[in-house]
Amino acid sequence: AQKVTQTQTSISVMEKTTVTMDCVYETQDSSYFLFWYKQTASGEIVFLIRQDSYKKENATVGHYSLNFQKPKSSIGLIITATQIEDSAVYFCAMREGGNNNRIFFGDGTQLVVKP
Amino acid sequence: GPKVLQIPSHQIIDMGQMVTLNCDPVSNHLYFYWYKQILGQQMEFLVNFYNGKVMEKSKLFKDQFSVERPDGSYFTLKIQPTALEDSAVYFCASSLGTGGYAEQFFGPGTRLTVL
Fold first, then answer.
1. Does B105 touch chain A if contact means CB atoms closer than 8 Å?
2. Residue pair B74/B24 in contact by the 8 Å Cβ criterion
3. Which of B1, B45, B89 sits opposite A102 (nearest CB)?
4. What is the separation of C-alpha B26 from the centre of its chain, rounded to a whole number of angstroms?
5. Which single residue of A27, A109, B48, B89 could bond B109 by disulfide (Cβ 3.0 to 4.6 Å)?
6. Looking at residue A97, what is its pLDDT?
7. Phi first, then psi: what are they for A14, rounded to 5°?
8. Contact assessment for residue B110 and residue B11, using Cβ atoms and an 8 Å cutoff
């Protein structure tokens, strides 16, 4: 069965600090793709970063980076130098390989960045 | 980045009525999706559409649901008849392909309220 679990419901941090959001996933596939999306207060869903399961190097895009620990089925999102505008709900997601296109989402983690 | 548009942003209808949600996907994308998000919950996959056909659907994609994209126009989700439990935000997404082009870009959502 496929499942994505985000145990942190809400995180509050001070501006300019680093935050890590946890995510674990379950899949039987040997090939899969992992994503992080951000949902803003307006409801807009923004793609942030992805990690392909066969890649050992952690993905990095801007001030987002991933901590991919394949043996633990874990894909943490790290945001460095957080800004007020990073406040949003962050969804971890997984897509299996092959012809499957459906994305399985976690429940989301609410991030609040305080000045 | 690539933009997916959705029309309308909010729709209120009476139970039993028909509703059509419209999605204008990214222009060169070939795969289209609908996801459903009940308030405060995770997004859940409904359906994947490619080359005029439903490729994959979930248990949430009831018999009352249908999708089409006539002549490259809007990608639509039709619900006929609607039920109270259909109240949710419906997100359309599109992707260029699969595998290395697996990123799905989401629209802003249509909030459907069934009374």
1. yes
2. yes
3. B45
4. 14
5. B89
6. 79
7. -85, 150
8. yes
